[in-house]
Amino acid sequence: MPRFPSLKVEGGLLGGDLIEQIFAGEAEGQRPQDFGLPSDVAFSDHLAFLWNRSRELWESFQNRLEALPQDDPATSLTRDRFVIPLLELLGYQPTYQREAIEVDGRRYHLSHRAEPSDEAPFIHIVGIRQSLDRLPPSGPRMSPHAYVQDFLNRTEHLWAIVTNGAILRLLRDSQYLARQAFIEFNLQEMFANELFADFQLFVRLVHRSRLPKSLADADQCLLERYYRQTIEQGNRVRDKLRDGVEKALNILGTALLQHPKNQQLREKVRNGALKPEEFYQQLLRLIYRLLFLLVAEERNLIGGSPVYRDHYSVSRLRRLTEVKSARVEHHDDLWLGLQKTFEIFSDEQKAQLLGIAPLNGDLFNRSGTDALNEARVSNADLLKALWYLCWFKPNERSPWQRVNYAQLDVEELGSIYESLLDFHPTFREEGGKLVFELVPAGMERKSTGSYYTPRELVGELIKSALEPVLQERLEEAKRIAQSAPYHGFDALGRPILRLPDDIRHLCREFRKSMTPAEQLLWECLRDRRLAGLKFRRQHAIGRYIVDFYCHEHRLIIELEGSVHDRPEQAEHDKVRKQELEAQGF
Length: 585
Prior knowledge:
The protein is α+β, with helices and mostly antiparallel strands. The protein has 3 domains: 7-220, no CATH class; 229-448, no CATH class; 455-582, no CATH class. The protein has helices at residues 16-23, 43-66, 75-89, 144-154, 187-192, 196-206, 222-258, 263-270, 276-298, 306-311, 314-320, 333-344, 348-353, 379-390, 410-420, 444-448, 455-481, 501-512, 516-525, 567-582, and strands at residues 7-10, 95-96, 101-103, 106-108, 112-113, 122-125, 159-163, 167-172, 182-186, 391-392, 401-402, 423-430, 433-440, 536-541, 544-550, 555-557. The chain has a 7-stranded mixed β-sheet, with helices on both faces. It has a 3-stranded antiparallel β-sheet with strand order 14-15-16. A two-stranded antiparallel ribbon has the order 3-4. α17 (455-481) crosses α19 (516-525). Residues 443-453, 480-485 and 490-497 have low confidence and may be disordered.
């Protein structure tokens, strides 16, 4: 279970270590007087009072909510009986905004300000039955979250709050970010499951004293200082992790060459059958697998049963890096277990047994590491290599700190990959033993043509490649679009007006576990970024779930990985395409 189950951080606004410091009261701005309390007040007593009063508000609100008709959005009840009293406990004076604000020709009617001031941050409160991420039945044609985010991006305001009572989010101006940026607390889960630790963190992060007092001091508020601290820490982690990956590669490479049972591997190296470059590429694939699983497991994207988490996960090995007794030279069971973990993600049957989804990409394909599949690595060497992937030191005098993979962004991982291209792999003899070593090679990338391309440039390339294709298909799609319903037809030819709950759940799960290629394309399609078209991702049409869908033109875009090259999958794709096109998609 996550440390704070009700907390969700997107866009790298807060680092894991800083969250722990804030919770412990060790970060800047966490003294009683920073919350407007006398210095001699025990903050723990104040938190207990707030907790008891907030639970009373929640229970009373829930009782009143049950009495409302199901089609009532409960906006007034949510505001007056729960959110406003809750925020008042945290030092706010929520002030209703009667007039809309016009920005760049657009009108924004955000419900409240933090206090009666023309420069106070905005608080947008909607009813608890209105999702923050879906279009409201009336009003602005944007979700509440997108509505507030768009306002922030177009004004000088830096931070704002959007909530429906069940979920509360702190939003930051994210016009320079490629994805959403917010700090979320699931209040419903917090109160239903009695998560007092989460509530403590909630108070320490959401209290009125955390947000700007005015536009002039917005860049000096505590939330903004926490954000800058996270950025600085992220830069340090990226630089140190780059060094750690290099050390892990050298350790694993040498360990593979020197293990007593890897005589066949050594012979291939000595007779020239296995070149340093080929060995390095297979070694890189092993490291990429570890990095992928570290990120996916920390972001809770893998799922799986307790058997996977306790016996097969890389997180288990990460914990063992701190256990000195696990670093045994003459045992290699941890390495063999890791190979089984890799097999799970390429074997549908094994994955199903452990409750996880197999991956269609080539990352876990055994053919990509054919020279290393039968090799061995001792527990000591494996855990030593993993240590440098999981821990870093900001400087020589600092203690070791844990790498928070859940907070690493695509660009940070990409920069690590980019740095590895600056090295040239070599084999050498030392004391009669083979040693693997990466040495700097200034022109190596130019000779191989390998570069890490920034997301912005990739976005432009995708747009330039897709837009001509789109224009060719739109006219044809328009002619037959009107005859096809939103979700297609069922087996009896009846239009599907509402999806079954299991299909809707499956769509949500697919959105949470998009492949890197899908995530990259989604950044170029979302928010009408491509030709001004509105796209949905992982959208259900009949018995199929398509990758990307534009309802305006009944246009489907599919990304096909290597799994689609298999004959049985190709036949399935052909039938699916025929069925969808027959319905006018």
